[in-house]
Amino acid sequence: MNARKWLIVLPAMLLAGCALATGNMAVVTYDLNGGTLGQTKKASFVEKYDMTETWDLTRYPRRERDFLYPEGTYAFAGWSETPVVPGSEAEASQGVQVKDGKTYYAVWKEGIKISFDIGEGTFMNQTGMIESMVPLGESLGQAYAWPDVPQSIEKGYCFGGFYLDDPSDMMEGTDFYSYVPEEGACLHAVYLPSHTVTFDANGGSLYVDRDLSSGSMDFVAGKPVGFSLYPVTQDGTLAFAGWSFDETSNSVEISGAQLADYVVDHDVTLYAKYTSVCVVTLHSMEGYFINDSYQEANQMEAHAPKGFPFGYDVDVYRKDGGASHIGWALEENGEIVYGADDIAQAVFHENTHLYAVFGGEGMDCAFAEVAGKRYWYENGVVQGTVNDPLIVFSMGEARGREIFDDATDSWYWLDASQGGAMAQGKEVWMPYVVQGEPSVDGKWVRYDKNGKMVKGWYTVEGEDASLYPGQEGNTYYYDPVSGAMLKGDVEIEGTLYHLDSDTGALLKE
Fold it and tell me: Quick check: 76 and 133 in contact, CB under 8 A?
């Protein structure tokens, strides 16, 4: 999925291992350890938690509260199970089992002061110019763990992003989460025309852990929703199948996963649709899952919609880091039936067990075939995914990565939209990279049915013609060194050829 993640909503379908609220509550005290709680000047506060859950204290409670240290010398960086000296290198605690009567202590680190110019909106319950302390070297996403963005006070507009100095160089949506600020930086909020999407759970609830029958959100006009949302029925006997524009219809126009890419170009109400349940039991084998309580789990169950796409990917991790999760099998040590990035589109008609399969251990600069697709490994890790630091972006979208295979003396394209799988029979626009940033200029290249970059003359026929019917019978010339499609009048081996200046197709006299 290439849509920007403006908001992350945890899937409601993952049930096993997700601790929901019980009557077993713990009263916990948070000691500000020399700091104070905003304008109240309180040195501590109390909250209640489910004692059965494990909490990552680097995440909650975070900066939705206004934690301050005297004279702005330090920035809040989480909580510790034991008192720590402000300004020390101590880290916040993770994986904490909450106990009744326990006290946790604020962690304060060296910080820098930045400002937010909120303009005609509100942010963190404040307006105008907001000053804040951020731990040195932390991104804003790390520092604030925000699930929220500024809110416009003008109807018909919503938050579009922040910019530093140049409004044309805006960090769209939640892109500012990854920004690591410098001392004195000021982020200016931008508000853009918006449309409203109303999500109607249609008899269910939008969330698994609380009853919410409907809700509305504003989105920048012409931008995708950017997140997935999986409503649930109250008794769990039905599974969410997708969204419909018609309250009374049984049809599904948008699946759960497709919601993230749905472009909002008008006000609309989406109605949840449900179908019977298939229980999919996921086994991590030698890996592990991370559930909604940030605990490790070896098995999870999901209520999949019978006859509809599963809807989302499931990440499986390995502690040793020696192999990558490459797919799912129907039995232990069985053959892969779904690639790791294909499960979202899997359709189930009965209760099913899926077993994680790992591969690529020890593989370096080599291809391996997984579920009919070829993946390129470096140091045992699949390349060309959205997490690949060398991936090429164009128009804000992860495109893929070009690699050279010494074994075949050929160039190949790893397609990010296929989870890094090698592209076959594909045309690719490859933007040039200038000083580490993609340029508006670039080149068209082509990869044949075997995935190799095409060089020299090439006529579109056979399987390629079925993929690009508008090009059937056309002949193109690709530079023998760079693979770039040539256009216009070109002399090739002493002969002048006329290639279409727009499409590159050979002009026939």
Answer: yes
Q: How far apart are alpha carbons 265 and 267 in whole angstroms?
A: 7
Integer Cα distance of 486 and 489 in angstroms: 9
| Residues belonging to the chain | 509
- What's this model's pTM, rounded to 2 decimal places? 0.61
Model confidence pLDDT, tens digit, residues 84-126? 999 888 887 776 666 788 898 988 988 888 899 999 998 877 8
Q: How far apart are CA 476 and CA 393, in angstroms?
A: 26
- The H or E element that residue 193 is part of is strand 186-200
- What are the structure tokens assigned to 297, written together? 């789990």
Question: How far is residue 450's CA from residue 425's CA, in Å, rounded to a whole number?
Answer: 7
Distances (CA, A) of 82 to 85, 88, 92, 127, 319: 10, 13, 10, 35, 27
DSSP 391-425: -EEETTEEEEEEEEETTTTEEEEEEGGGTTEEP-S
Structure tokens at 209: 């852990």
CB 426 within 8 A of CB 446: yes
Instruction: Provide the token pair at 84.
Output: 């720590």
